[in-house]
Structure formats: C-alpha cells, structure tokens
Amino acid sequence: MTISRGAYQPDGNVKNNKHRTDNFINFTLIKYAVTDHFSVQSTPQIRYAWNGHTTSSSLHFADLPVELQYRWIDQDNASYRPSLTTILGMTFPTGNYSNLGRALDGAGNGTYALRFGLQSQAAYNVFNHALRVRVWGVGRQPLNSVNIKNISNYGTSLGYKGNARPGLFGNTGFSLEYGFTKEWLLSFDFVYDWAKGTRMKGTDKNAVYNRRVTGASHDIQLAPAVEYNWSPKIGIIVGTALTVNGHNTNDFVQPQFAVMMLF
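Below the sequence we write its predicted structure tokens.
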C-alpha cells in the first residue's frame, strides 16, 4: 500500500496534499530458471486507488514487465567474487492510460518500453553471520509515443486530445541482508529513482493548442525490513519503504508485506 504524504516541488520542498491519493498495489514476482544461468522474470501488478473524493472504478492491471536475465559470472564466496547478471526485456502496455472514466483509473502509460540493466551480488561472513550485498542499475526507454484523449494518466482532463512521449527512466541502488539465524534476517534497501520529462502536445476543451515538456524527477527511498524463513523454500518479509528526498514526484510511505516461495 502507498500512503501519500504530499508532493516534492521542483525546489525539493514538500507540499502537503489537501486530499491525498493512496494506492494498494499487489506485485507477484514470477521467476523461472530455464538453465543454471538463464532465467525469465515477470512482475504482474494490480492497483486500486482512492482519495477524499472518489476511488478507482475497480481493480486495474498495470503495464506488464517481462525480463530475460543471464548470469555471466557466478558468485564465489571463497574469493569474495560477486556475481554479474545482465537484464534485457520489455514492458508491455497492458494498463489503462487514456480516455479514463476517472483519473484514479490510470494504471499504465501506453508505451512499449525497453528494459535493460546490470545487477551484482555477493555474500560475506561478518561476525560469523552471512551478509548479502546486492547492487543494481536499470533503465527503461519508452519506444513509442501515444495518443491521449480526455482524462488520462498524463494529467489531462475532459476535452483534451493530443499526443505524449515519455522520456527515459530507471533506478539504481543497493540492498543489504544480514542473517542473525537461519530463519531471521534484517534487510535494508537504498533506491534512487529518476525520470526524464514527458513531451506533450495537443488541444484542450477550448481548442487551444499547447506544447510542453514536463520536468524531470527523482526520489530517494529507504526501505528497512524483517524477513523470516520457515525453510529454504518459503518465507515472509515485512517492511516499509519511504521517500526522504526528491523533486517533481510524490512523497510517500509504503508499508510492504511479501510471501516468498520456491518450487
């Protein structure tokens, strides 16, 4: 669930929202190992939003990401060598984004987006307990512009007709996991999200033509969590992600709960 605390302004200050918009988001991470080094991953998402005036008309599927991951270098704890994995994939525009009945029904951006990145991880013995360190950097490049009409996920209203092309966006960060026992772990994530502006052009309900580029944005998130594993194949994680810095983006707290299962 995402609880909005306001919005970061262009100067980095936070402006509180009189009627905040909160979201419930369900992520289901599905990863299939084709070989020891090659895997396919997808993360379907379902969203529901509400504020002081209205709600989403129903649950909505977001855009669907699919990634191919190949591990070129295996992790070697004895020599402190980290693994190295490349990521290549596509985001498919399965979420609503244009001609919406309500602004809160928006769950996608309408574009196909190329996904690419690197990730690396290693485990170390610290005070006779395992510390896993993971770092990553990923980018997403929208490949097409989209036609938008009326209320849309791009902030347009009734009577608008035009075109939008989102810019490059992505994130980078690191994750630490420290195992106190075989069952209990503490984790901490640091995430830096960034996005270039969106180019928009079109006419409003008064047939006035306008052309603009929305401002670039960024946020910094911290995400502490506690993890418990009943076995190597099943566990749960409970934590919270929150923004601590940003501009032109939302300021939020995001309580999180996940169940992990291996088959």
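The first strand starts at residue 3 and ends at 8.
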